[in-house]
Design goal:
Length: about 190
């Protein structure tokens, strides 16, 4: 099905004020992955983005994922609750600083209020600790309904909006692409 998708690009310079969010809730930990593991990043991309039509990278080979996570300065941070993966963010070096390449919560945690703001604030704090002069991010009309508001609430400013027509499956692939919630195989178009 063809659908119009509005994409919004935002940025936050190292001189811009940041609006704090509450701390990471008690019982949760946030840790940087010490060893680059492209398989883990692809799992997180699928698990977090499956409900939001994150399908652009599903057809990429392992070598593409490996090149990304092996890039000097690339970081993956994982939010956990007593060992369970709750969410993550990736900071990817760019020509102008860092990009918050992927950010979000797994479905079991996406509906729990109070996690998105602290996780985003932690990503911003981490980007500032690296000395990056600029942190950029983009979101779109297919993302979580609270995504854009969360970015703006922390201090990101919108720099551009564009609408693109995309060819997408009738429903998002979910966190387990290729299978429906009852365990039946589905045909999912994978872009490369």
């Amino acid at each position: 099905m063809q659908i119009d998708v509005e994409v919004v690009w935002l940025e936050l310079s190292s001189d811009d004020p940041v609006r704090e969010s509450g701390p990471i809730p008690e019982g949760f930990t946030l840790e940087r992955m010490a060893v680059a593991q492209p398989e883990v990043n692809r799992f997180l991309y699928t698990a977090v983005g499956g409900d939001w039509y994150w399908v652009d990278q599903l057809g990429k080979p392992l070598s593409w994922w490996k090149t990304r996570v092996d890039t000097p300065g690339f970081e993956t941070w994982i939010l956990r609750e007593q060992g369970s993966v709750a969410g993550y963010f990736e900071l990817e070096p760019t020509r102008t600083g860092l990009e918050l390449a992927y950010f979000g919560l797994l479905p079991a945690y996406a509906s729990r209020r109070g996690l998105g703001g602290p996780l985003l604030y932690a990503a911003i704090r981490r980007s500032r600790l690296t000395g990056a002069p600029l942190l950029t991010v983009n979101t779109c009309s297919l993302d979580h309904p609270g995504a854009l508001a969360n970015y703006k609430a922390r201090g990101f400013r919108e720099i551009r909006r564009e609408t693109f027509t995309r060819d997408l499956p009738r429903q998002s692939p979910g966190p387990w692409p290729g299978w429906d919630s009852e365990g039946h195989r589905q045909s999912i178009p994978i872009n490369s």
